[in-house]
């Protein structure tokens, strides 16, 4: 049995790495530090769209490459490796994938071609104040009124909401959970800027009786299952991003300790340094294994709730440990703003917090194991 990546998957990964290596440098990233500019490189995004990578998982009839979630995850892993300022997860995973999977044919034809061509951005609002479950909206409500759905409430930490033309979100109604594709310029939509540790543009989305036409409604009743589908793939994509970022930070530290000398020998030869780097390597490889396992199952439309939970735990813990270890072995250089490691450490922390508290995740997984839900798919 072949466990490696196919030639096509390797080519997708190599193409993404080549473009991102050429276009993303510490100098280009410095322009977005401390919110000096919105952290979105439109020129890079257009180049990725022209190369077909934005539409890597879109069907060929809409102009996409026609690949699946595994190829998309490999692309996002390269985004993490370069911490590129582009909305790959929000656009490609959280919004484009569910539109292609659950949207009407009319919605697909209207949205997908322009989205993969880079003509406009999509995003999804998955969290509410004090509620991180996208499948169980409690703050945003919807009321059917004639040929429209009237949506009110608020979502928080919506990535690239200021730049996006459409925002996918769920709302609670009397008939169930509705999922809509919201026009960000519609009357009653207010976007308030928020700040996060990675400088990614995120916003609070406030909805005041926003009328959404039924043509922009994905479902009126079965939104819980759809949003769980979206949430699991978004979480797996963040794990892939974390994998790329942790591996790059680890290799940066390995290179530095091999060149930095004390007592006329590289510090990498010191036992304590070697042990810390070995621990980083084990962590990164475990994250790789758990992430690829979750992604491969999701790509095959197999139930992977347990595998996603495990990958999330490893993504948070690996990011935490690798961040501390790489800063430690760098010494003062690790926190020097002239050296690129600090940006990776911010992203590792951001992804860790996005995954949620590891102890809470372990508790939830343990509860599912105790009930027999996590033993078999």
Task: Summarize the structure in words.
By secondary structure, the protein is an alpha+beta fold. Helices cover 51% and strands 17% of the residues. It has 11 helices and 10 strands. The chain has helices at residues 7-23, 26-29, 42-50, 69-82, 88-102, 105-116, 223-259, 271-299, 305-330, 341-355, 358-370, and strands at residues 121-125, 141-145, 148-159, 164-173, 176-183, 189-194, 202-213, 217-219, 261-262, 265-266. Strands 1-4-5-8 form a 4-stranded mixed beta sheet, with helices on one face. Strands 2-3-7-6 form a 4-stranded antiparallel beta sheet, with no helix packed on it. Helix 1 (7-23) runs parallel beside helix 4, helix 8 (271-299) packs antiparallel against helix 9 and helix 9 runs antiparallel to helix 11. It is globular, with a radius of gyration of 21 Å. The two termini are 22 Å apart. The mean pLDDT is 94.
């Amino acid at each position: 049995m072949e466990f490696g990546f196919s030639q096509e998957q390797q080519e997708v990964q190599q193409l993404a790495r080549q473009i991102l290596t050429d276009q993303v440098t510490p100098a280009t990233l410095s322009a977005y530090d401390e919110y000096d500019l919105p952290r979105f490189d439109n020129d890079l995004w257009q180049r990725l769209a022209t190369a077909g990578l934005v539409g890597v998982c879109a069907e060929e009839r809409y102009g996409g490459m026609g690949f699946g979630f595994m190829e998309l995850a490999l692309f996002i892993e390269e985004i993490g490796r370069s911490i590129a300022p582009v909305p790959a997860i929000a656009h490609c995973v959280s919004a484009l994938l569910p539109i292609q999977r659950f949207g009407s044919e009319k919605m697909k034809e209207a949205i997908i071609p322009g989205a993969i061509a880079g003509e406009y951005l999509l995003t999804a609002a998955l969290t509410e104040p004090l509620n991180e479950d996208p499948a169980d909206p409690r703050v945003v409500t919807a009321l059917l009124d004639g040929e429209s759905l009237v949506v009110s409430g608020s979502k928080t930490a919506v990535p690239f909401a200021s730049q996006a033309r459409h925002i996918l979100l769920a709302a609670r109604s009397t008939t169930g959970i509705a999922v809509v594709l919201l026009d960000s310029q519609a009357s009653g939509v207010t976007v308030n800027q928020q700040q996060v540790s990675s400088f990614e543009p995120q916003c609070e989305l406030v909805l005041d009786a926003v009328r959404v036409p039924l043509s922009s409604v994905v479902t009126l009743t079965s939104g819980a299952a759809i949003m769980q589908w979206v949430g699991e793939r978004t979480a797996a994509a963040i794990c892939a991003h974390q994998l790329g970022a942790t591996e790059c930070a680890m290799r940066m530290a390995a290179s530095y300790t091999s060149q930095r000398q004390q007592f006329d020998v590289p510090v990498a030869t010191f036992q304590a340094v070697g042990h810390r780097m070995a621990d980083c390597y084990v962590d990164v490889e475990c994250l790789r294994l758990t992430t690829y396992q979750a992604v491969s199952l999701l790509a095959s439309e197999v139930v992977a709730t347990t595998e996603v939970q495990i990958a999330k735990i490893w993504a948070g813990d690996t990011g935490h440990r690798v961040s501390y270890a790489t800063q430690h072995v760098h010494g003062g250089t690790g926190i020097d703003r002239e050296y690129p490691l600090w940006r990776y450490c911010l992203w590792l922390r951001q992804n860790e917090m996005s995954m949620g508290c590891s102890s809470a995740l372990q508790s939830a997984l343990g509860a599912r194991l105790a009930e027999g839900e996590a033993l078999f798919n």
